[in-house]
Each structure stands twice: as structure tokens, then as C-alpha cells.
TrEMBL record:
It catalyses: Endohydrolysis of (1->4)-beta-D-xylosidic linkages in xylans. Belongs to the glycosyl hydrolase 10 (cellulase F) family. The keyword Hydrolase applies. Its EC number is 3.2.1.8. The keyword Nucleotidyltransferase does not apply. This is Beta-xylanase. Keywords: Carbohydrate metabolism, Glycosidase, Hydrolase, Polysaccharide degradation, Signal, Xylan degradation. Residues 1-300 form the GH10 domain. It comes from Dactylosporangium cerinum. It is an enzyme of class 3 (hydrolase). The active site is at 234 (nucleophile). The chain holds residues 31 to 331 of 450 of the full protein.
């Protein structure tokens, strides 16, 4: 196949990208999007600050724009993200205790209900574990409402949209380390107690300080062995030329080697679309031309 999406589909996978609603009117951007990708993740439009800017008042305009674009171009949608310590609206940042817990539950219910039937997988909870060797939860306002906030979010999402796969998503969990061990233990615990979880997302933001781990595939596999799907959810790799191309190849191959790795999403289309302040971490250059990393990724699929 001659596109990322079609080649991934031949392998029973998808190939996706983060999408920003305000860029859909850029024809170079949407041209690449609609040619190459068959899964989209709204980059910011489904986050708490965007969807519930004031408490109880929901705003779906730009997220709906991405959803309708996707639906008319045979692209599925990864919802991102229902409960997260970051990009919360100011009113939620100022809540705590029962008020925050209730607000979180209502938010999950409302947003998952609004998109019921339209979402392939939700990142129900994003980035809830701490970095470093401690293997603990991240300290956040949500965590301070009680350690059960994650399972409550998952049960709430399941009740609202039983057809969506429900994922836990994080970064620096791509290899085996204290943080990924802690996520692993949580998934194992959820599975043993019947807390609904279907998938684990590995953001996979890589650079020279945080390279593709040598045990990347083994780590994906050990999660898959717990009975969840795994996905690469926000892939970008700093670098250029053949080194970058080789890193993208390795990541793609790792996913293909794990039967429950159901797809790969890159975090933007052109280098100029990247959230990273500098660098060239994506598959297309600023003019929308295919890079060596594109060619190696397509060849690996
Ligand atoms: C980033 C977006 O790309 C930026 O536009 C925004 O300013 C900040 O968030 N982990 C995540 C994503 O789960 O939601 C983040 O996206 C990147 C890190």
C-alpha cells in the first residue's frame, strides 16, 4: 500500500495523527491528513478546559468539527482525554475533595455521552503516575480526592459509552522502569477486580534525553499479556535523516511484533505542527514533503 493508513490496515492496524481543528482549513494539512491517516486524536479540543470552560456548561464546537471531518473521511477517533491533571479549566483547578470528585465524574459522563458511539478508544485517564523511581501516583488535585479516582473515572466512562475502548495513557512508560511497573500493577489490579480497562497507551515522545528504549517491544508485550490492547498514542522522535528514520522503523516494527498493538498515532503531521518548541520530530517537513522517517515507517508496515 502507498499510504500509512492503508499499509497499517493491511496489517490489521490503524495509523493516526493528532489533529488541530483550526488547521483543517489549511489544504496542505488536510490533504495529507485525508490521504495518509485513518485515526485522529483531537490535539486539545476534547480536553477538560476546552469542553467544560465553565462548570456545567459544555462547549463541543471545535471537537465536533474534528469528529465530523473524521467521519466524512473514514477516519476513526481516539478521544483525548477525560481526566487529567493538566489543561483543566480554572474552576476545576480551584476545586478539591468531594466537589472536585463530583465535577470529574460529571465531566466524564457528559463528554463520553456526547460522543457515545463515535469513539474508538478514550484516554480515560492521562498521566496519573509520577516520574522517577518511586513508582507512585502523581500528586494532583484529582489524586488528592482519593486513590480510587482512576477506577471511578473508568467505571463512569464505561457506563456512559459501553462501546468505546477505555485506555490509560502515559509518557515515560515506554520501557520497563519504576513508572511503567506501577502502571502495570494498576492494570493487573483492575483486571483482577473487574474494573473496566481495555487498553494502555504509550505516548512515546522521544528525544536524545529519552530515546526509544531497547525493551520497548518487550514492555508493550508484557502489558498485552495482561489482556489489554496497547497503542502508541503520541509518537514523535527528535532528530533527522537516517537516524530518525531508523528510530521510527524500530517503533513501527515493535508495534507490528505485538499482536495486541492495534495502532500507532503520531503527534502531528508536519514538523511545523509539532507541540515541541524546536526540532523536527514528525514524518513530514514544514512544506508537507515526506521525510526519510516517513519512508522507513511506510516500508516497515
Ligand atoms: C499537548 C499539545 O500538543 C499542545 O498543543 C498543548 O499546548 C499541550 O498539550 N501529553 C499529552 C498531550 O497527553 O495532550 C499533550 O499535547 C502532549 C503531552
Amino acid at each position: 500500500a502507498s499510504t500509512l493508513g492503508a499499509a497499517a490496515a493491511e496489517q490489521g492496524r490503524y495509523f493516526g495523527t493528532a489533529v488541530a481543528a483550526y488547521k483543517l482549513s489549511d489544504s496542505v494539512y488536510s490533504g495529507i491528513l485525508d490521504r495518509e491517516f485513518n485515526m485522529v486524536t483531537p490535539e486539545n479540543e476534547m480536553k477538560w478546559d476546552a469542553t467544560e470552560p465553565s462548570q456545567g456548561s459544555f462547549s463541543y464546537g471545535s471537537a465536533d468539527q474534528i469528529v465530523s471531518h473524521a467521519q466524512s473521511h473514514n477516519q476513526r477517533i481516539r478521544g483525548h482525554a477525560l481526566a487529567w491533571h493538566s489543561q483543566q479549566p480554572g474552576w476545576a483547578q480551584n476545586l478539591s475533595g468531594t466537589a472536585l470528585r463530583n465535577a470529574m465524574v460529571n465531566h466524564v459522563t457528559q463528554v463520553a455521552t456526547h460522543y457515545k458511539g463515535k469513539i474508538y478508544a478514550w484516554d480515560v485517564v492521562n498521566e496519573a503516575f509520577a516520574d522517577g523511581g518511586g513508582g507512585g501516583r502523581r500528586d494532583s488535585n484529582l489524586q488528592r480526592t482519593g486513590n480510587d479516582w482512576i477506577e471511578v473515572a473508568f467505571r463512569t466512562a464505561r457506563a456512559a459509552d459501553p462501546g468505546a475502548k477505555l485506555c490509560y495513557n502515559d509518557y515515560n512508560t515506554d520501557g520497563q522502569n519504576a513508572k511503567s511497573n506501577a502502571v502495570y500493577a494498576m492494570v493487573q489490579d483492575f483486571k483482577s477486580r473487574g474494573v473496566p480497562i481495555d487498553c494502555v497507551g504509550f505516548q512515546s515522545h522521544f528525544n536524545s534525553a529519552s530515546p526509544v528504549p531497547s525493551d520497548y517491544q518487550a514492555n508493550l508485550q508484557r502489558f498485552a499479556n495482561l489482556g489489554v490492547d496497547v497503542q502508541i498514542t503520541e509518537l514523535d522522535i527528535e532528530g533527522s535523516g537516517s537516524t530518525q528514520a531508523e528510530n521510527f522503523r524500530k517503533v513501527t516494527q515493535a508495534c507490528l511484533n505485538v499482536s495486541r498493538c492495534t495502532g500507532i498515532t503520531v503527534w502531528g503531521i508536519r514538523d511545523s505542527d509539532s507541540w515541541r518548541a524546536s526540532g523536527t520530530p514528525l514524518l513530514f517537513d514544514g512544506n508537507g514533503n515526506k521525510k526519510a522517517a516517513y519512508t522507513s515507517t511506510l516500508a516497515a508496515l
